[in-house]
Write a structure and sequence with these properties.
Blueprint: E1 3-5, E2 10-12, E3 15-17, E4 22-26, E5 30-33, E6 41-43, E7 46-50, E8 53-56, E9 60-62, E10 67-70, E11 77-78, E12 91-94, E13 100-101, E14 106-108, E15 111-115, E16 120-121, E17 127-129, E18 133-137
């Protein structure tokens, strides 16, 4: 397992987050996905939005085993079309005790997890799902 914690503003292209690997974007960091031929960022592991910003001029694709996680411990988060497009993601994990708000209609194709003590608001948005499992995890 490889975990990459982006600690500088960075531009990448034609990159893949492999299964069992995590790419973390902490607060104050912007990761820009540049546009070139094909898919510019493929996530087969975990994309952890820990307060950072994903800026897109390119394309993002989630694999069947991928996870999008919201985990900023410093404040509330609102999803954006950059990391959570209308086509959605496979697995969605809410791990932010301050709460996460859905920005627009989207979809989840696998598992949806809300860690105990965290909240998720869809407001007036639609969250379409072919969810295999919805779970709440209690932290002891």
């Amino acid at each position: 397992m490889n975990n990459i914690n982006v600690d500088i503003n960075l531009t990448i292209d034609q990159s893949t987050v492999n299964e069992a690997n995590t790419l973390t974007l902490p607060g104050g960091i912007t990761l820009t996905i540049a546009n070139d031929d094909g898919t510019d960022l493929t996530v087969n592991g975990t994309l952890d939005m820990d307060g950072g910003v994903l800026s897109m001029t390119g394309t993002l694709e989630y694999g069947a085993s991928s996870t999008l996680e919201y985990s900023d411990a410093s404040g509330t988060q609102t999803s954006t079309a950059n990391e959570l497009p209308a086509s959605g993601c496979a697995n969605l994990k809410i791990n932010n005790t301050h709460g996460v708000t859905l920005h627009a209609n989207t979809a989840i194709s696998a598992d949806f997890e809300i860690v105990s003590g965290c909240s998720f608001s869809i407001s007036d948005k639609d969250l379409q799902s072919v969810v295999r499992q919805i779970s709440m995890v209690r932290l002891l």
